[in-house]
Every structure is written in C-alpha cells, then in structure tokens.
C-alpha cells in the first residue's frame, strides 16, 4: 500500500505543488483500484449468475419433463376411458338396432299381409238381377 501522508510544515510553493500532485496521483490510483476491484467482483458475480442460471435451467427442464410425463399419462388415461365408453355405447347401439330391426321386420310382414289381403279381389255372391219395370 501507500505511505500515509503526514502533516509536515510546507515551506515552499514547489513543495505544495509536489504534494498536491502526489495526492492527486494517489486519488487517481485509488480510482483505478476501485475500478479493478469492481470489475473483478462484477466478473465473479457474472460467473456465479451464469453457473446458477445453468443449474436453475437444468432444474426447470427436469421439472418440465416430469410435468409433461404426468400430463401425457393423464391424457392417455382419459383417452382410454373415452374409448372404453365409446365401445360400450357402440355395442349397446348395435344391440338396440338389431332388436329394432326385428320389430320393424315383423311389422313389415304384417303390413304386407294386410296390403295383400286388400288387393285380392273379394268375390261376393252374385245377386239376381231384377228386371226393370216398365
């Protein structure tokens, strides 16, 4: 470090100017030292932030992967449940359609029989004709 400035009697203006220059130079050097120190601290802090941010980023990625896996599992479970319900409803609908088709077929046979019965000529016994009176 530097020597401490001691107060001594100054006798000439040249000595005063020399002391002022020396002190000014020390102030300049103190400023440089401050700049260097803060620069080192800034660099050190920056490196710590970079290191920490890499760790945080890795942790966030890992957490995101876990959440994505859980979400995919949940979606897969929901899709399976919906597909199961669709298959169940499809089977029920097929049974209902088959049962309704049988009912419609029976009704169609009855209707066809009635229609056929109406189309067949019904021959009634012939009535004797009465001659017209003159």
Automatic annotation (TrEMBL):
Pfam families documented for this protein: Phasin
Stated name of the protein: Phasin family protein
Domain of life: Bacteria
Species assigned in the record: Pseudomonas pohangensis
Listed InterPro entries: PhaF_PhaI
